[in-house]
Amino acid sequence: MGLNIGGQVGKVNGKELSYSDFVQRYLLKNEPVVLTGLMDDWRACKDWVLPDGRLNLPFFSTHFGSSTVQVAYCDTKEFTDQKREEMSVSEFIGYWLEFSSGEFNDASPHEFDGKSLLYLKDWHFVKEYPEYLAYTTPLFFRDDWLNLYLDKYRMHEDPETDKEKNEICCSDYRFVYMGEKGTWTPLHADVFRSYSWSANVCGKKKWYFLSPTQRHLVFDRNMKCSVYDIFEDVSKTKFPAFDKAIWMECTQEENEIIFVPSGWYHQVHNLEDTISINHNWFNAYNISWVWDLLLRDYNEAKEYIADIKDICDDFEELCQRNLAANTGMNFQDFFVFIVRFSFANLVLLYCLVRDYENFVGLSSQRARHIYFNLESARDAALKMNSTGLAQNGSIPIDFNRNLGDSAFLELCMALGRTYQLLHEPCNISEITKALVDDLVEFEFVDPSASHISTPEDLVSLIDYAFTKLSSLSSGKFSH
Ligand SMILES: O=C(O)CCC(=O)C(=O)O
């Protein structure tokens, strides 16, 4: 039986959409959309595509040939994904050119002349070639806490893993994908329950989407394992509700960008030789879902090794280590992340207070955005707190110490620039150590509670700043 397709993903001209429309219509509703008109000036669209519209493969061998990349064998399955191997871009292009003279095999769609189709995935192109400005991230996707953070910090420090390897694979979530006609990506929801966007520089993709409200329909009875390929003969015994799922589909053309909402399952097929740019990201709108997923993954990790609990010296520590290895972060990583982001947003809010004598700035879109960020971080901290799991053994994060750290100041600056871009342009004072000292003196942050060890501490820190702000706007405070 074929898929039950309930609708097509809509297409909207991105040039005619404001940032706040995008937020209202897609981010807040968590709905997919295809955006057109946003790739006009991209260098990638010129350099990577030949005048006749084909992919410029020799360009990649010549300029980026020595990069080591991950390549998926599309006709293989390893756990929940395709089997991958590392090779150089030159090798990959070499295989591509060799196979492309073969015959496409309709009976076995992921093979070419009996050989598996190769799909280059998750190439950290921007991290590897920061000087080569292949594209600019469209405005709609700029409020990206994940990549802004990873530009300055690592998500998880593990002294036991190979540092160099970690350097590449955990460095960011900005990728290039490259594959010939017939390559594909199995059904999945994205890492961390992040949003993603994917821009077709060349070629065409077919997307199949399932809303998170129907997630249970593609899982087995125990909700442990999901369907791998929605076009294979899905076992009714194993996945009894699969045929009840109602899908959305979409054909994404060249120069179109698809927004993949948080937690939506999707399977993707390259209908032509295709190269795409793709980011994963999260922000205030989905940060608490990131926590929900982390908690779910933690419970799974714990259940998986439950039988060794009694013989384990530090069972909790092992669960957290496994969580970081499987999900990409553990509770402490998430906590440090939201604390640093909260600190950064407090700095930005303070800058607005300081820059606007009579605080009119606090009703601006930018101030509301920063306020909303802090509220979302507070909500995530409250959720963490309610589990009672995130209390133990965490190292206090000192607000004042962070303020002295250049990585932190850079994060504040990058975040400040982002909100300047998204909202009304106006000058914001430079975020310097002096300003930050000023902030401390100003007692915007409770000096007696600036060591954050628990989610509860973070909630108190944010509440204190909110109280201070409300006293500012009611005129009780003068600077
Ligand atoms: O383009 C692909 O093959 C997969 C992309 C994807 O899954 C994503 O952007 O989330």
From TrEMBL:
A molecular-function term among this protein's GO annotations: sequence-specific DNA binding
Full protein name: JmjC domain-containing protein
GO cellular component: cytoplasm; nucleus
Recorded family membership: Belongs to the JARID1 histone demethylase family.
Gene Ontology terms describing biological process: positive regulation of translational termination
Organism: Rhododendron simsii (Sims's rhododendron)
Residue ranges annotated for the JmjC domain, each copy included: 126-298
One Pfam family linked to the record: Cupin_8
Domain of life, per lineage: Eukaryota
